Every structure is written in structure tokens, then in C-alpha cells.
Amino acid sequence: YVPTILMIAVIIYFFTNDIYRSISALVISCPCALILATPTAMVASLSAAARLGILVKNVSLLEIAGKITAIVFDKTGTLTTGKLFVTKLEPANDTDPAELLGLAASAEQMSKNPAARALVMLAKEANVSLNESSDFEEVPGKGVTASVGSHKVLVGRDTFLKENGIDMTNVSDPSLHEEQGFSTLYVSRGNQCIGWVGLQDKVRAEARSAVDELLAVGVKRVTMLTGDRAEVANRVSAELGCTDYKAHCLPHDKLAVVEKIKADGHIVAVVGDGINDAPALVAADLSIAVRSAGQLCKETADITIMRSDPGQILDFLKMAEKVNKKIHQNLIYAFIYNILSIPIAMSGLLSPLVAVCAMLFSSLS
Q: What predicted TM-score, i.e. pTM, was given to this entire model?
């Protein structure tokens, strides 16, 4: 831009031999308006986002946000409340329900997982005492291992227990446990499964309307990812109106889904709240963490919404689209101003003083 304007000023002086016309052209074409067009809109958008309860780390991503065509949600904590409730205890024939709950809660008490909090809360409400645990280890997306008393206790998916050589023959077919749409955690003591715990989560009241509006504003695909079985995923996805879902997701599965959607030509936003979502958040074009997310998730994400309301994502995407339109509008006005004003300066109708005033007016407007 600058070399072009300098060349025009030299040409004006060459043909008119009037230095004031060249100076007027240089002043009137000062790129203040062009320079201010983008940052002023960006700063205003940051302020507007903060008022909406949206924290934006990287303002340059507003341009990407206005072009999002696919959104991937982690189910728990984003589309659902993230507050699990124990709805059923199914101990094996030789196990007492209180014993099943006590072992599961004792093993899980060091975990911050929503399922762990639900187990510990129920144990306290039922006055079931918890034993101290040691050698605690949590495998993201699978389950936990801990030593409770003299026993090694595992709590997690049936596949997690099977991977560790646990005998599952004394419990019924796992697929029968989720006909009512609840998730299951299996509990083992030693090498024997001693039963399972059923948990349920509630869909956020505002989630369905948020999904509908996202699809209405031009988002082509809304995908739900969950570590639950297909029965639970299908029920929640249908209730929310998602375009598709994937169940049995471990962290690397979520990453693979995001990369596949990007390979299909979509610009992808990922919304998550847990350490399991971190790989997918990193791979996304735009990563969003909810308020209840863990520290790692918040540090990984580009944006944090402070109300854990999916509707805030819609508000942000609409705002980003308006900001992009405003930036383009500002740039177009600035170019039109220069295209019209430079010929006037060439004609000698503008003195340098008038050119200064016109330049200031264009910057302010």
C-alpha cells in the first residue's frame, strides 16, 4: 500500500509540478483507517464477549469462529449437567449391596471424575464407611485401580476389567444393563467381579434449543462423543437432535473423530470439560472449555465459557460472524474513501490542511 501511494505522489508532482497536491494526496491517503479497521473491531468484540461470560485467549481465532461448520461436543458436563446420580446397585449373588458400594467408593475417593463423586456422595448418604485406599491409579476413559485393605479393587468399564484379567462370569450380559439408558461401572475385588453400579446424568434443559439453533445458523454437523455405550449415546443424541454420535470413546478415539471431520473439509470446534478431551481440543480449529472443566482442559482451550451453557457457544459464533462482517465493512469503507479522495487531491481541490481534517474524520468514522 505505502509504495503505491508514494509512487502516486511522485507521479502527481511530475505532471503538475505542485508539491501541495502531492502532500495532499499523501495526507488524505494516510492508512490510519485501514490500520484501525481490524483492531478496533477485535477489542470491541473482546469486551462484548467478556460481558457475555466468554473468555477469549486468542483474538485472532474470531475469524475462524465465524466460519465454523462442525461442532464436536463431549457429552458429560457440556450437553449434560455432569452431575451423575447412582440409580442402581447390582451386586453379585454372594455380595452385599453395602459392601459393593463401600469398595467402589473407597477405590474412587481420590478421583475427581463425576462418577467417583456420585459414588462417594451416595456412600455418605447411606452411612457406608469408606476405607483408606493406596496405590491409586486412574486410566483416563477406562477406570481406576486401588488397594483397599488387603484387596486390589478395580472400578470402571467391563472392558477395563477384562483387560486386567477379571472374571466376569458371575454378572449378566453388560448390554442388558443399559436398556433404561444408564451407564454402568463394574467393580472387582481380587480377580472376581462383584457387581456393577448404574448411573444416570441429566441433559441440560437449554441443550436441545442450542443444538437446534446451531444447525439453523449454518453449522452443518453437530457430533456428540461419549465414553458410554451405544444405548446411552443413542438416547441422549436423539433427545438433543445431534446429527451423529460416537460411543465407547477413549481420548485417542475422540482425537480420531476430530481429525476425520477435518479431513472431510469441515472447520471444527470442539467443546470439552475433562482431561479425556485434551487431545481433541488440541486438534480442533477452535477449542472451547466449559466453566466446570479441569485446569488442563482450560489451559488447552482457546475459549472458556463461564456458565456451562451450550447457548453461550451460539452467542460467541454469532458475535464472531458480526465482527468479521464489521472488519470487512471497515476495510471496504477505507478503500472507497481512498479511491475517491486521491483523485480530488490530484485535482488541487484539497489543500493539505483540508486533507488533514478529512483524514482525521475518516479515521474516527
A: 0.69
